[in-house]
Amino acid sequence: MESILHTKQTEIISWLIIATAGLFALYCAGLVLKTLFQIVNQERKFQGTGAGAVRTVLFTTLVVGAIAAGLYGLPNHFFDGTTWAEIQALPSSALLGAFWVAFTAVVMFALHFVLTHLYPKPEERPLFTVSIFSVVSGCSYALVMFIVNTALKTDTSKLGLGSYFVLGLVLYVFGQKLVRMNLNKMTNNMLFRVRVDLIQKITKTPFYKMEEIGKEKIYTTLNNDTETISSSIGLIVIGITSSVTILTSFVYLAVSDLFALLTTAVLIVVAGVLINLTNKSAERLFSQSRDAQNVFFRYINDLLGGFKELYLNRRKRDEFREDMVESCSEYRTKRIAADGVAANVYFVGELVAFIVLGGLIFVLPALFVGVHNETLSDYVLVFLFLKGPLDNVLNMIPRITQVRVSWQRIQQISEQVARLGSDRMEEPVVVEAQVHIALQDVEFSYLNQEQASFHVGPISCEFSSGELVFITGGNGSGKSTLAKLVTGLYAPSNGQIVVNGRQLDEEHLGQHFSTVFTDYYLFEKLYGVDHADAEQEMQKYLQVLGIESKLQIVDGVFSTTKLSTGQKKRLALLITYLEDRPVYLFDEWAADQDPEFRAYFYHELLPELKARGKCVIAITHDDRYFDLADKVIKMEAGQIMQTPVPSR
């Protein structure tokens, strides 16, 4: 018995356990004290029910008790029936100390787990707990493998070993469940924060700068990239646990035969180099496929947005379909190439695994004559057991590559939006009821790579409260650009816009306007309006505008937005009316209306807004109504050609 307990390996392992578990126990004790301090200071608050707390404490106690029983039975089952009393009588064995230190570490970690589980901290990321449970789960899988291997080689009763098999199985399942639950929660919380941060940055970005980014990039980042990360978590959890299992198994192999382990390690290093080289190529191809996906999403937007135009023109439809199919084909080609290279990662790993297995069986006995068949059997059984974990690790590598590409894209778009955004959009805005807006030598250019494709200005004009102004001009004359400049959607490249004698930035300028542009977007909810106080007014104008039978507004939510273009613009008109801003701008509002509502718009609504002291600006081609305006601005080739005086 003494010879077994006094082997060099046993002493080394015992002292390693004392050192490692001792540091771990001290660290956990510090975390427990820190957690108790946070609970006392109410930084952590109890969550859950009394029954849930009892279940958590009871189950954790049972697990700790099972681990204690397993540690207590180690000498009897693995040191030829030795008892702890016999070990205690020995003068120099470190095994007893290793037992107590290991048990103390288990108790400290269990206490830390129970406290943080019952008293969670808001937005806490339990990386330490997840890491420990990953290690426990991986080691438990290796323990099951070790117990099976030991049981196959013993002729005595196997019931005691069976209890360790059950213990390893329980710890593996328990650890996997907790790792998955915590990592899933952490990941989704992280993605929530990323999405919210990106949404906040986007909503702070000026309109003209958002146009530079492109809708398809925003869509793929908010949807596809975040989902790629979220959907990969399960596989990555399995891969991490499997990695721990493999490392633990290698420790077991090192104890069995060092030469065999060194041979295996050399082959694994070679495999790692090959996999790393292959994975770099896969990362580049995944990035290219992500770019191709952006282009394809742009075609999807075009397909849905321009479907009626495509439907009515067969040639246009056919040519568009060819381009979209070509884009889809390019995405398919890039993705097949990326997945193909990713598959090579798996095949390289598989090949190396079988080379290692063949080398152990056929080459190792030839190189080292002293290697016993029993040792080889241990190695072969371990490698067969590790086939599943090895497959998990190999499957994890391509997914990590995809996650890395998606994370890089999220960071890129976040940095780009943050760079284009402005904190001034959060500053309080003072909107005066009476306004005088003056454009002073304002210029703006549409840039096409290196050259300006269209230039507006210099423009100087004025708009005032109680005034009705029409803006007219041919297609491409710059009237819509002028509207976007005066509303703050575009920033002048030269000149300035002054409101009541003060120069305002684009964000503060825009807060003075209620607008209906030709491409007005109708939300499903009434935002920015106290709908509860405007219930009667809403019902009145739904009836006046002839859409009371088409939809209802309940608690600020529209019953439907599936309306005709003219009906949508009438509803948009109602929304702008309820917003009650000092300046109203309408871009070709009457173009989609029948004569009845067109006459209502010009003869009743616009004069009513003017009578209320509003500044009203309307872009229009309806020259028969020009006599209603106080001023008509005519645009041509980006310039104000004349401001004719309407005839009364």
Q: Would you mind describing this structure in some detail?
A:
- The model is unreliable at 448-452 (pLDDT under 50).
- The chain is built from 20 helices and twelve strands.
- Strand 11 (631-636) and strand 12 (639-642) form a beta hairpin.
- The longest helix has 54 residues, at 314-367.
- Helix content is 66%, strand content 11%.
- It is α/β, with parallel strands linked by helices and 648 residues long.
- It has three domains: 1-124, no CATH class; 178-418, ABC transporter type 1, transmembrane domain (ABC transporter transmembrane region fold, Up-down Bundle); 436-642, Rossmann fold, CATH 3.40.50.
- The strands form three sheets. A six-stranded mixed sheet has the order 6-9-10-3-11-12, with helices on both faces.
Task: Order the strands across the largest sheet as they lie in space.
Answer: 6-9-10-3-11-12
Proportion of residues in β-strands: 5-15%
Fourth-level CATH superfamily of the largest domain: ABC transporter type 1, transmembrane domain
On the 0-100 scale, what is the average pLDDT?
Answer: 76
- Percent helix, as a range, is 55-70%
Q: In the CATH hierarchy, what is the architecture of the largest domain at level 2?
A: Up-down Bundle
Count, helices: 20
Rg (CA only): 36 Å
Biggest β-sheet strands, sense, barrel = 6 strands, mixed
Number of strands: 12
Q: Count up the domains.
A: 3
Overall shape: elongated
User: What is CATH's topology name of the largest domain?
Assistant: ABC transporter transmembrane region fold
Structural class by SSE content: alpha/beta
Low-confidence stretches: 448-452
Instruction: Report the CATH C-level class of the largest domain.
Output: Mainly Alpha
N-end to C-end Cα span:
118 Å
